[in-house]
Automatic annotation (TrEMBL):
Signal sequence bounds: 1-18
SMART domains assigned: Lactamase_B
Pfam family of the protein (one): Lactamase_B
Domain Metallo-beta-lactamase: 56-248
Source organism of the structure: Exophiala bonariae
Protein name stated in the entry: Metallo-beta-lactamase domain-containing protein
Listed Gene3D superfamilies: Ribonuclease Z/Hydroxyacylglutathione hydrolase-like
This protein's UniProt keywords: Signal
């Protein structure tokens, strides 16, 4: 196990990096700890093939002296059970899960939330007003069956979640610590947020900030929308975080603020390569060549096909 010391808000942060799937835990001196679980890529069924995988995903657990907040929940029931078991191993018998905060309305960030409520019945599910509206849309037909059902089959809980909405300021608390949902707007989808923990100079990036995973552009199909995503990233930079946890990232990527500019670089590369490509295969190949260390073959394929009007 490798340990790295970082200076954060005048206190020492220790990040323990272990073989995956194992937690990476950040300990602070303010009775607040941050744990991150890296879920392995999941095979999906796409265009008759299961050779593509959904992006690896990281889930963040903020733990106080007696209770905790989980940021997002996985897509499938099996993934939810895996992450819920990890949460239980962290919290033990003397702490409880207070809330699950959903950063945005993509189903791979909340479908399994009920898995956690079966263990922690008092845990509520939180989102911004606009985020909750997007969550509800993911269950609507024919969208659900044509998209999530086609990718993951019957491995997802199809009963809509009960989501409590935050106030306009996006603020909620964990044992007196301020947690703030920042509505940046456009990420790889609309109505996106990041979760800011000011006391730790920490941002959980949702699908606004990426690690070394290919970025989704199927919903950022115009230069204007990609420009809005860039503006959202500048808003994240304006929070001046020292620790940034992307949702789609690799265990070895670390949690530095450089992920924000890395996401900006990828958007600008997509802008550069898209007009040069005569077919989706060329765009996919160019992105692979430009970013050889990035994971997430399904998202790369979909983002490459979307501008060429390939049917999902």
């Amino acid at each position: 196990m490798k340990f790295t010391d970082l200076l954060l808000m005048g206190s020492t942060i220790m990040i323990a990096i272990a073989a995956q799937p194992s937690p990476i835990c950040t300990h602070a001196t303010h009775d607040l700890s941050v744990y991150v679980y890296h879920l392995a890529p999941e095979p999906v069924s796409y265009q008759g093939s299961r050779n593509l995988t959904f992006s690896p995903t990281a889930f963040t657990l903020l733990v106080g002296a007696h209770s905790a907040v989980l940021v997002d929940a996985p897509a499938t029931n099996a993934q939810g059970a895996e992450v819920a078991s990890w949460v239980s191993s962290i919290l033990g018998s003397d702490k409880t899960l207070q809330s699950i905060y959903i950063t945005h309305g993509h189903g791979d960030h909340f479908f399994s939330a009920r898995s956690f409520q079966s263990i922690y019945p008092a845990a509520n599910i939180l989102a911004t007003v606009h985020g909750a509206e997007h969550v509800a849309q993911q269950y609507s037909e024919p969208f659900y069956s044509s998209f999530w059902g086609s990718l993951f089959g019957d491995t997802i809980d199809t009963e809509p979640l009960e989501v409590q909405t935050l106030g306009d300021d996006g603020i909620f608390h964990l044992e007196g610590h301020v947690l703030r949902a920042v509505e940046v707007g456009q990420g790889d989808t609309y109505n996106s947020t990041v979760l800011h923990v000011p006391g730790l100079d920490l941002v959980v990036g949702g699908d606004v900030v990426y690690g070394n995973c290919h970025q989704l552009f199927a919903e950022d199909h115009t230069p204007e929308l990609r420009g809005q995503w860039l503006a959202s990233l500048q808003e994240v930079n304006g929070l001046r975080p020292k620790v940034v946890i992307p949702s789609h990232t690799l265990p070895q990527d670390g949690y530095g603020a450089e992920h924000v500019n890395g996401t900006i670089d990828y958007i600008r590369a997509y802008e550069e390569l898209l007009p040069k490509a005569k077919a989706w295969e060329e765009l996919e190949s160019s992105l692979k060549t430009r970013f050889p260390k990035r994971d997430g073959s399904f998202i790369l394929r979909w983002s490459s096909q979307a501008p060429f009007n390939q049917a999902f």
